[in-house]
Amino acid sequence: MAVETPKRYIGKPVKRKEDLRFITGKGLYVDDIHLPGMHYAAFLRASYAHARIKSIDTSKAEKIPGVVGVFTGEYFRDKVAPLGTAWALTNADLKPVTWPVVAYDKVRFTGDIVAVVVAKDPYIAYDALDAIEVEYEQLPTVVDPEEAVKPGAPQLHDEAPNNIAFTWRFQGGESFEDLERKADFVIRKRLINQRLIPSAMEPRAAVAAYNPGTEELTVWVTSQNPHVHRLIMAGSLGIPEHRIRVIAPDVGGGFGSKIQVYPGEVIVSRLAMDLGVPVKWVETRRENFIGTIHGRDHIDDVEIAATNDGRILGLRVKTLANMGAYLTTAAPGVPTILFGLMLQGPYKIAGVDVEVKGVLTNTTPVDAYRGAGRPEATYILERAMDLVALRLGMDPADVRRVNLLDKAPATTVTGLIYDSGEYKKVFEKALEIAEYKKWREIQEKARKEGRLIGIGISSYIEMCGLAPSRIARATGFGLGLWESVLIRVHPTGKVSVYVGSHPHGQGEETSFAQIVADELGVSIDDVEIVHGDTDETPFGMGTYGSRTTPVGGGALALAARRIKRKARKIAAALLEAREEDIVEGEGKFWVKGSPDKAVTFQDVALAAYTADKLPDDVEPGLEATVFYDPENFVFPYGTHVCIVEIDPETFKPKILRYVAVDDAGVIINPLLAEGQVHGGVVQGLAQALFEEAVFDERGNLLTAGFNDYMIPTALDVPNIESYFEQTPSPHNPLGAKGIGETGTIASTPAVVNAIIDALAHLGVDHIDMPLTPFKIWKALKGKK
Amino acid sequence: MYPPEFKVLVPSSLEEALKLLKEHGDNAKILAGGHSLIPMMRLRLVKPEVVIYLGKVPGLRYIRENGSTIKIGAMTTHGEIESSSLLAEKNPLLQETASKIGDLQVRNMGTIGGSIAHADPAADYPAALTALEATVVLKSLDGEREVKVDEFIQGPYFTDARPDELLVEVRVPSLSGRFGTAYEKLYFRATDFAIVGVAAYVEVDGGAFSRVRVGLTGVGDKPVRARQVEEELVGREASEASIEKAADLASEGLEPPSDVRASSEYRKKMAEVLTKRALTRALSKAKGG
Ligand SMILES: Cc1cc2nc3c(=O)[nH]c(=O)nc-3n(C[C@H](O)[C@H](O)[C@H](O)COP(=O)(O)OP(=O)(O)OC[C@H]3O[C@@H](n4cnc5c(N)ncnc54)[C@H](O)[C@@H]3O)c2cc1C
């Protein structure tokens, strides 16, 4: 039997294996789970953002036919432990703020759950919510972090005086005071990184079923990290971890908002156990806006010490990070480790001094949202570059040329070791592709005609592939950050790969199969990737932080290589030769000099199972499990250039050109990588131009639907020209870096810089995002 | 997003629809394209006990010319208006307006009757319909009446229709001679409702404006005509210079809303800008451009 000769897959634009099921509507999401006897839960959310619950009358709701029960905070109080954060930041005076799954004494934001109805169908459940009467004593509300830390502000948690959940300080390199003395000037600017709402297409959902015979709980939940879900839920529910099976089936987007363990999945789990029926909950879109985490939300007071030739010597940043009402799973690490340590960027800055206060307010909790901390850092740096250019009358490109690191490896003042990259080369390449010089000339001419054209640059570097466990643990992260895989070769030579990562739209069922197929020399069609079920897959940390390919993929390559080594031994036995004499290629093994007498990978696989011809030191079977903990992060980087034109009467910006040059190391699948760049750029420009979560002063979310919260449509998005440079990372076996967040990190400041550049000659040096036509008009009012 | 229980009635004739409306009156809601009603029901902002679906009532979906009037059935979709060759020739203002409503799905489902009856203060049609001095025909078991659109729409989501009345037809003029029209819509995000929308309709005679109509949406409780602009221009030289001067009057007396998107002042300013643009484009068309 001849083996189909596989091509090398890595680097090829292989079409997604997932396409068939996703494009034909055959995906399986939590809402598609239907179990016999299943009941439905609906949550009554708080009427006020801050109030004491005086009484809850559920009697009318309970009488509605079809309602099985109504449960309040008192019911859950002793049965379920409240949720805390898993990123227990060290040296930051982190306060033990926890989140009861159902509020019992008071509510702290309008997404707090005050009662749960379980009914035979969801319509009845929602009718019953209307029949619950809650008496509240309203408390004063605070939504603005600057107000929240003032004396006399309303207090959210007894455990966190002055609403400060943590204070994190980092000082690296020369002190800012010294650098200030060496500098020719210091620019002081307040930059606001507004709050965003992740808006995954699939809202959150969970179905729980309990088998009292085996005492096992199965929970289907939309999650980026099913194993982490299981671990945390075991703690909260007080059941042994091995008695819980978490299945995250197809997940319709997460962007960070499905890392967290939320009250919803814990509540339905507990009720499924207590009521003896499966219980389902699917978030409404409105609940998703209010009750699922938000992202960003910084007030950054920035000081930039610079010289007259454009060098930025030092940066001092004081940040108020609005954490919302509670600290969720990864929250404390986002505005600190993932932000502060990135404040040197790809530049030669000699000192970084950053202090972050995590502030609690009566708003939706804030946690990781695509990029998580790194977009906030890049925004500060890239705005700083342009502010220095403006101040000195220098070309913003030249300011970057003065400041850019030439190439990696490089050690930062924040203690990171950049792995690989040609920062200046990629920068020049991006400017050349975007025809930077030509656009400067066009801009000059256009200005004379009263037209407003602007050019924005953004150079970024990203710490991702979130890994080495020892560093993660040193920062207080609750777990290590390795990944694991199990590769199992079946007797027919077909391959099942069980991974701890949990891709949810990124396409790793394809790119992982490419890696395995190339390593083993088999066809990509013979490789299946299994993920998302804790009973099937080895422990994994999940998919976020652009870590799935560098860390999970790294584990995969190592495991495949281990299989290959064993396969060579078996092949040698079959060919009655010495292992050193075995040559392999294209899925076959032969003895040096006799390629015509080859055995195939299938022959070897079968021999591993028939087990009669194995060498003495070789066990039957052909599988390998690898736990891989990389030695360092990976650092993709790049330069994006954006050209905009602003309508001089309506002030509506239009992106004329968008060029992205990214170096994410070895690209496994350019089609998927480009898709990630496109999606990322769109989400980043959405922050620059469209999106903002707005609360009124009483804590009501005014943008609680897609009418008011403007995620851009396809019509609002320019053509994105994406190019890759491929400098392998030495930090993992594939040489790959992450590509999931680069677009989001780079594009926000590229777009903002372009708009400010278009207006600079009118006396505008900054506008806080989103830069809507209204905001631009307002900034120009009274200027000319 | 689960509405409370409601009953759906599906009349198969106009007569039956009117009967059901009379019977259920205040507790009923008409369902046309559903693109405004269904979201409100899902959010439990409206909780009708009875929903009367018009989709199976024959004779409500047409665009036809009748002398100097074009009659449009209430159930005609935005998409049908957008692609009507009759309107393209004889009332391009309505056609252009329809083409700028929402997205393809909205235009395929949403109806002109539903849009007017819903009376969203930022809806697109009302700008054009006000400029065109259009009327709507309301029918009940007691008879029929014709009302001007700017009198029919009384405020945000509030019209002159009685609970037993059905909006059955919209009437717009069939335009001829040296006319030009344009609808300018400002939105921040594609497919959204207008921040401000301005519809202009001009006729030119011997180098001067002989007729000018400007309708605005999104600038207050209901659509308005910019009468100051109209009066300023009629009789003046048909030129961009005249428009430039007159357009600044568009915001006079307006009190547009402020919201999370934009302030009242910005909307006023945009009313002027869009009035200028709409008139300029309309004039260029009237001149054969
Ligand atoms: C995403 C989205 C974007 C949109 N963008 C725009 C936009 O840019 N511009 C714009 O103008 N509109 C926009 N709309 C609104 C859209 O045009 C609606 O379809 C329209 O306003 C209502 O028409 P309908 O046929 O869907 O009415 P329905 O939703 O069925 O009904 C609306 C209301 O009118 C009543 N009604 C309907 N027909 C009649 C009748 N014949 N007689 C009496 N009462 C009646 C109903 O009882 C209900 O109260 C948008 C809607 C959506 C969902």
Largest sheet: spatial strand order of chain B? 4-5-10-6-7
Largest sheet of chain A: 7 strands, mixed
Annotation field: number of helices of chain B: 12
The share of residues in helices of chain B is 25-40%
**Global shape of chain A:** globular
Q: Largest beta sheet of chain A: what is the strand line-up?
A: 3-5-1-12-9-10-11
What CATH calls the topology of the largest domain in chain A is Aldehyde Oxidoreductase, domain 4
Assembly form of the protein = heterodimer
So, CATH architecture of the largest domain in chain B? 2-Layer Sandwich
Query: Span between N and C termini of chain B?
Result: 49 Å
* Tally of separate domains of chain A: 3
Structure in a nutshell:
The complex is a heterodimer of chains A (784) and B (289). Chain A has 784 residues and is an alpha+beta fold. In chain A, 29% of the residues lie in helices and 24% in strands.
What's the arrangement of secondary structure elements?
The complex is a heterodimer of chains A (784) and B (289).
Chain A: H1 19-23, E1 39-45, E2 51-57, H2 59-63, E3 67-72, H3 73-77, E4 106-107, E5 113-119, H4 122-130, E6 133-138, H5 145-148, E7 164-173, H6 176-182, E8 185-196, E9 205-211, E10 216-221, H7 226-237, E11 244-247, H8 263-275, E12 279-282, H9 285-291, E13 295-306, E14 312-324, H10 337-340, E15 351-360, H11 374-392, H12 396-403, E16 410-411, E17 417-418, H13 423-433, H14 436-448, E18 452-461, H15 469-474, E19 483-489, E20 495-499, H16 508-520, E21 527-530, H17 548-574, E22 582-585, E23 588-591, E24 594-600, H18 601-610, E25 623-628, E26 637-646, E27 653-663, H19 670-689, E28 721-725, H20 742-759, H21 773-780
Parallel strand pairs in A: 1-12, 10-11, 14-15, 20-21, 27-28
Antiparallel strand pairs in A: 1-5, 2-4, 2-6, 3-5, 7-15, 8-13, 9-10, 9-12, 13-14, 16-17, 18-26, 19-20, 19-25, 22-23, 23-24, 26-27
Helix pairs in contact in A: 11-12, 11-20, 16-17, 17-18, 19-20
Chain B: E1 7-9, H1 14-24, E2 28-31, H2 37-42, E3 50-53, E4 63-66, E5 69-73, H3 78-82, H4 85-90, H5 92-99, H6 104-109, H7 112-118, H8 125-131, E6 135-140, E7 143-148, H9 149-152, E8 153-155, E9 158-159, E10 166-173, E11 179-186, E12 196-205, E13 208-217, E14 224-225, H10 227-233, H11 240-247, H12 264-286
Parallel strand pairs in B: 1-3, 2-3
Antiparallel strand pairs in B: 4-5, 5-10, 6-7, 6-10, 8-9, 11-12, 12-13, 13-14
The structure holds flavin-adenine dinucleotide (FAD).
Residues 29-37, 74, 101-102, 106, 109-111, 113-115, 117-118, 120, 123-124, 161, 166-167, 191-193 of chain B line the site of flavin-adenine dinucleotide.
